[in-house]
């Protein structure tokens, strides 16, 4: 069977090697006679799978020893509530940086628990550039500062890590593992798995140990970082198959050469696609060059009447899920780690051919 090139923003492409390994192991995991999905999460075999996944993630991100790694349910959206519930403590103020739909959603949810202050917003720039460090207005009494490193929908990515006195909380759902990061600069990192980690159903949370004592009394036990940490992410039955598959992705990333190697590949893919957009008459991307996402590339067509034809022909050529988010329209190519460079080459070639036929100079 020929695999199509999948540019979906999430649930997103998984490496072929990972899918093939999971397929081979599906009915009989390591000769045990059962599937990994049928195995107790507290069995010695599965505990080893879970521990290896955590260690591989720690290795990839060079996570310091004073950080807990949690594998939680509910996705990144549940973290919009989980973060304030766990970090507010005796404080009532939290700072949020607004750079698009996901950071705005987090901000709105935060208002249910905290006196939210908007430290900066990309709205004056039509969400086409990130507020600079000197444009941040941070509260002296903030319990934490929250931002989204990469806005999946708008294709807007921070080109720096904000400097803050309060613990820095980052939603990295769209760009975690796309390049090396310095985890020690953050209080909490969280990321839904279904973009660059694994299948939907699990959320990675990396939290500094000194922040585990701040949870509000109303925080449900299943959402309390300290409780989850004390129980090795098994306070309740975890999504075992998603955890297992995420672990296979971590091993795959190691085989690619780690995050330095994957970052170089991601930079090449993004550069090819942005060049194709910038040198055309038909396609456009409005995001400031410094803040263009290397994971999510939205673009518009000068003649919007061509959009339906573009999508139909793209799909016929095995280029799937290029329709932009319903809130903004246009097109979007998500080029996560598992999207091969050949997929971007094929997309660029199709875009050039489509323009020559429907929008010649």
UniProtKB/TrEMBL annotation:
Residues 5-347 form the Aminotransferase class V domain. Pathway: Amino-acid biosynthesis; L-serine biosynthesis; L-serine from 3-phospho-D-glycerate: step 2/3; Cofactor biosynthesis; pyridoxine 5'-phosphate biosynthesis; pyridoxine 5'-phosphate from D-erythrose 4-phosphate: step 3/5. Its EC number is 2.6.1.52. Its cofactor is pyridoxal 5'-phosphate. It catalyses: O-phospho-L-serine + 2-oxoglutarate = 3-phosphooxypyruvate + L-glutamate; 4-(phosphooxy)-L-threonine + 2-oxoglutarate = (R)-3-hydroxy-2-oxo-4-phosphooxybutanoate + L-glutamate. Binds 1 pyridoxal phosphate per subunit. Homodimer. PANTHER family: PHOSPHOSERINE AMINOTRANSFERASE. This is Phosphoserine aminotransferase. It comes from Balneatrix alpica.
């Amino acid at each position: 069977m020929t695999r199509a090139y999948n540019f979906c923003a999430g649930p997103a492409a998984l490496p072929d090697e990972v899918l093939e390994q999971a397929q081979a192991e599906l009915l009989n995991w390591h000769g045990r006679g059962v599937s990994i999905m049928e195995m107790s999460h507290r069995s010695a075999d599965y505990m080893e799978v879970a521990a290896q996944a955590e260690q591989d993630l720690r290795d990839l991100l060079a996570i310091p020893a004073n950080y807990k790694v949690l594998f939680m349910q509910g996705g990144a959206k549940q973290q919009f509530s989980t973060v304030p519930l766990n970090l507010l403590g005796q404080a009532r103020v939290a700072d949020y940086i607004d750079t698009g739909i996901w950071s705005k959603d987090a901000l709105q949810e935060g208002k249910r628990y905290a006196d939210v202050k908007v430290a900066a917003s990309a709205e004056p720039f039509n969400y086409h550039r990130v507020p600079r460090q000197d444009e941040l207005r941070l509260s002296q009494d903030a319990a934490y500062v929250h931002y989204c490193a990469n806005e999946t929908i708008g294709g807007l990515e921070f080109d720096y890590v904000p400097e803050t006195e309060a613990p820095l909380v980052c939603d990295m759902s769209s760009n975690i593992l796309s390049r090396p990061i310095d985890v020690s600069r953050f209080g909490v990192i969280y990321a839904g798995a279904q973009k660059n980690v694994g299948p939907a159903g699990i959320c990675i949370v990396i939290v500094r140990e000194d922040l585990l004592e701040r949870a509000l009394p109303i925080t449900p036990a299943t959402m309390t970082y300290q409780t989850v940490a004390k129980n090795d992410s098994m306070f309740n039955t975890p999504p075992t198959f998603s955890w297992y598959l995420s672990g296979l992705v971590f091993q795959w990333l190691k085989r690619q050469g780690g995050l330095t190697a994957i970052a170089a590949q991601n930079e090449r893919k993004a550069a090819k696609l942005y060049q194709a957009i910038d040198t055309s008459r038909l396609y456009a991307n409005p995001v400031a060059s410094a803040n263009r996402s290397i994971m999510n590339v939205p673009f518009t067509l000068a003649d919007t009447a061509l959009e339906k034809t573009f999508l139909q022909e793209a799909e016929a050529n095995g280029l799937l899920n290029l329709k932009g988010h319903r809130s903004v329209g246009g097109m979007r190519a998500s080029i996560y780690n598992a999207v091969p460079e050949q997929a971007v080459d094929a997309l660029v070639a199709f875009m050039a051919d489509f323009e020559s036929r429907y929008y010649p100079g």
